[in-house]
């Protein structure tokens, strides 16, 4: 039996919709089969498990998203512009694929070396240029003294945490998905402003 690319694409698109509405844990293979309009046996022929299916979707997201982030990190823009661009791009992606952050967290805790090798190959994220840029801005008196890695972790934390805590935030506030996404759209400006104001001299 030969795998049909159009059927595989149909399954991947269906899985993205189901993961988006139900999350990684809430999604079932039957849900994905129903959304794709196929039977469960055919779904299992293409993808042996939900984890394998999700992993392929994640790798597609990562291969499109990471080059954009790396381009920002290695760009010649000012530090403040870089922070703004990074936050906007990062949060935009998370709004589109909110099921990804929890998957990354789980995989990093489960098998950090294997996961990073799968995503990055033998390359490391190009953060060195950003770290050097931060050091230069400190010496030039543009920003307050701060450990560069602390600044990078602050930026990442403020971008990622709301998506990891989304179920709790929605439960406490009574927000639906649309309201939550509107709040996250606001964070594209709120987060860089907060970061920049905290380090600016």
TrEMBL record:
Keywords, ordered alphabetically: DNA-binding, Membrane, Transmembrane, Transmembrane helix
Q: Which InterPro entries does the entry link to?
A: Homeodomain-like_sf, HTH-type_TetR-like_transc_reg, HTH_TetR, Tet_transcr_reg_TetR-rel_C_sf
User: Which residues form the DNA-binding region?
Assistant: 28-47
tRNA processing as a keyword of this entry, yes or no, is no
Give a GO molecular function annotation for the protein. Answer: DNA binding
Q: Which residues form the signal peptide?
A: none
The record's annotation in SUPFAM superfamilies points to: Homeodomain-like, Tetracyclin repressor-like, C-terminal domain
* Alphabetical list of Pfam families matching this protein: TetR_N
TM segment ranges: 151-172
Q: Where is the HTH tetR-type domain?
A: 5-65
Domain of life from the UniProt record: Bacteria
Task: List the protein's name.
Answer: TetR/AcrR family transcriptional regulator
């Amino acid at each position: 039996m030969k795998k049909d690319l159009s059927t595989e694409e149909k399954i991947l698109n269906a899985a993205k919709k189901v993961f988006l509405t139900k999350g990684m844990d809430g999604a079932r293979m039957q849900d994905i089969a129903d959304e794709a309009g196929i039977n469960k046996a055919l779904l299992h022929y293409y993808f042996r498990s939900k984890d394998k299916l999700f992993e392929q979707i994640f790798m597609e997201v990562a291969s499109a998203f990471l080059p954009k982030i790396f381009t920002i990190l290695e760009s010649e823009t000012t530090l403040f512009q870089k922070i703004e661009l990074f936050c906007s791009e990062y949060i935009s992606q998370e709004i589109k694929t909110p099921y990804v952050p929890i998957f990354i967290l789980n995989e990093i805790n489960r098998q950090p070396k294997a996961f990073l090798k799968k995503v990055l190959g033998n390359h490391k994220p190009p953060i060195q240029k950003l770290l050097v840029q931060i050091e230069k801005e400190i010496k030039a008196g543009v920003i307050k003294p701060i450990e560069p890695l602390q600044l990078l972790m602050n930026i990442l934390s403020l971008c990622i945490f709301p998506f990891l805590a989304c179920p709790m935030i929605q439960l406490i506030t009574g927000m639906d998905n649309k309201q939550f996404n509107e709040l996250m759209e606001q964070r594209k400006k709120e987060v860089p402003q907060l970061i920049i104001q905290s380090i600016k001299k």
